[in-house]
Amino acid sequence: IKWTEGRGWHDAELVPYAPLSMDPANMTLHYAQTIFEGLKAYKQPDGTVATFRPQANAERFQASARRMAMPELPAELFIEACDALIKQDRAWVPDSGEASLYLRPFMFASEVGLGVRPANEFLFIVIASPAGAYFPGGVQPVSVWLSEDYVRAVKGGTGAAKTGGNYAASLVAQAQAASHGCDQVVWLDAVEHRWIEEMGGMNLYFVYGDRIVTPELTGSLLPGITRDSLLTIARDLGYTAEEGRITTEDWKRDNENGTLTEVFACGTAAVITPVGSVKSERANWTQGDGLPGEVTMKLRKALLDLQTGHTADAHGWMHPLG
Ligand code: PMP
């Protein structure tokens, strides 16, 4: 779907996957006015297909657009575009289990020009790819690196938007994590470098017995849809679920004294991933016994059962396509 100043959204089309040709002076290539989303379509037990909370993705896409001075795509159009692609690619929706069809809606400036200003032309596209189970051989805890040299987002910045530049800026920290033998980066706040924010592509949860806590939305972390869903699912299962503030010192101390029983990360791609060990320039510890925890695995199952249609959709989160 195209957007042009003065004309709005126009010329929606469904076309076979193919490369785009682009002018070298395309504004996105220079100034990164670009946003994206990620969501999954799951085969349901009766053979139909459904997406999980596409309205929430559509609304986050609008919030990202506002932050990046881009036009807001109406939520109905966002969902209609995803639905049309899934229907076209129905044969690519995997049959069962945790496998899904991953959808990547995105929008970028399609105008040509070298002046720095909001563009007047944009292109919204959705592409899809089958995604296997994130852990085909069983859930494996990840090791994390606490990034003290780099920050992902600052107050007033673009941290709460799903925009390409955030990810580009994070790559050097991801490489640093890998050089220390860690799978993922944990981002800390930009001012004191001690408040836990989120992971590279996932939000974090801290399990204190039957109370689970996730870092509050400070404006510099992405409001994850999985994070939001788990606040509700955890309460449904009888846990206390809340937003709070946790420092790296709290994490280390509460792990040592045994009150912090589990830590996990959550997001569309991995659903829920246990955190097994933590490293930084100054510290190195095993989270709990380093194995996937009971609460983590219970929440993982509850969320996947809902997404794959094995439990009732009590909150009206599933969007059936027939
Ligand atoms: N934080 C970041 C930086 C992300 O890229 C993602 C993935 N979209 C998340 C958190 C998790 O968000 P969601 O649960 O909506 O996938």
From TrEMBL:
SUPFAM superfamilies per the UniProt record, alphabetical: D-aminoacid aminotransferase-like PLP-dependent enzymes
Swiss-Prot/TrEMBL cofactor(s): pyridoxal 5'-phosphate
Keywords: Amino-acid biosynthesis, Aminotransferase, Branched-chain amino acid biosynthesis, Pyridoxal phosphate, Transferase
EC number(s) stated in the UniProt entry for this protein: 2.6.1.42
Signal peptide range: none
Catalytic activity: L-isoleucine + 2-oxoglutarate = (S)-3-methyl-2-oxopentanoate + L-glutamate; L-leucine + 2-oxoglutarate = 4-methyl-2-oxopentanoate + L-glutamate; L-valine + 2-oxoglutarate = 3-methyl-2-oxobutanoate + L-glutamate
One Pfam assignment: Aminotran_4
InterPro entries: Aminotrans_IV (IPR001544), Aminotrans_IV_CS (IPR018300), Aminotransferase-like (IPR036038), B_amino_transII (IPR005786), BCAT-like_C (IPR043132), BCAT-like_N (IPR043131), BCAT_family (IPR033939)
Any one GO molecular-function label of the UniProt entry: branched-chain-amino-acid transaminase activity
Broad EC category: transferase
Pathways per UniProt: Amino-acid biosynthesis; L-valine biosynthesis; L-valine from pyruvate: step 4/4; Amino-acid biosynthesis; L-leucine biosynthesis; L-leucine from 3-methyl-2-oxobutanoate: step 4/4; Amino-acid biosynthesis; L-isoleucine biosynthesis; L-isoleucine from 2-oxobutanoate: step 4/4
NCBIfam families: ilvE_II (TIGR01123), PRK13357.1 (NF009897)
Family: Belongs to the class-IV pyridoxal-phosphate-dependent aminotransferase family.
Name of the protein: Branched-chain-amino-acid aminotransferase
Species for this entry: Streptomyces goshikiensis
